[in-house]
Amino acid sequence: QVQLVESGGGSVQAGGSLRLSCAASGRTYSSYGMGWFRQAPGKEREFVAAITWGGGSVSYADSVKGRFTISRDSAKNTLYLQMNSLKPEDTAVYYCAATRGLRTVATAYNYWGQGTQVTVSS
Questions:
Q1: Tell me, what DSSP letter sits at residue 71?
Q2: Which of 31, 38, 44, 63 has the smallest set of CB atoms within 10 Å of its CB?
Q3: Which among 76, 78, 70, 1 is positioned nearest to 36, based on CA atoms?
Q4: Whose CA is closest to 1, among 111, 101, 113, 103?
Q5: CA-CA distance, 65 to 54, in Å (whole number)?
């Protein structure tokens, strides 16, 4: 019952920044958590960051901690991922997803967006 649409992807030079957005619509619940995942060609989908709407609890993958910031605007039902100091290895399709609680594995998520491409060149 939740629809997710990502935006904000694009191409950037190494060291640059991008901000991804994920707009949620449909039936949402205060207990839901939302996360960002990414998938590069030939690799498994990996966890990036997650946040709970109610308590504001956050979790980050070690690979992005200190560089990326996840946040949400509950009034707008929108999730954000601020990405700074981007590296070529950050190149991937980025997906937002929704579940109940704070989860860090893709299989725990019930709803997914279509993804947005992020390309970081050196």
A1: E
A2: 44
A3: 70
A4: 111
A5: 22
| 8, 118 Cβ separation under 8 angstroms | no
Alpha carbons within 13 angstroms on the beta-carbon side of residue 71 total: 9
Residue 7, C-beta contacts closer than 8 angstroms, at least 6 positions apart: 20, 21, 22, 23, 116
Residues whose CB is less than 8 angstroms from the CB of residue 68 and which lie 6 or more positions away in sequence, other chains included: 48, 49, 60, 81, 82, 83, 84
Residue 120 Cα distances to 9, 38, 55, 90, 115, angstroms: 10, 13, 33, 7, 16
Q: Name the H helices within 35-102.
A: none
Q: Yes or no: say if 23 and 97 are a contact pair by the CB < 8 Å rule.
A: no
Strand partners, 26: 2
The list of the chain residues with pLDDT below 50 reads none
How far CA 41 is from CA of 10, 34, 35, 64, 90, in Å, comes to 16, 23, 20, 19, 12
pLDDT per position as a tens digit, 96-115? 999 988 899 999 999 999 99
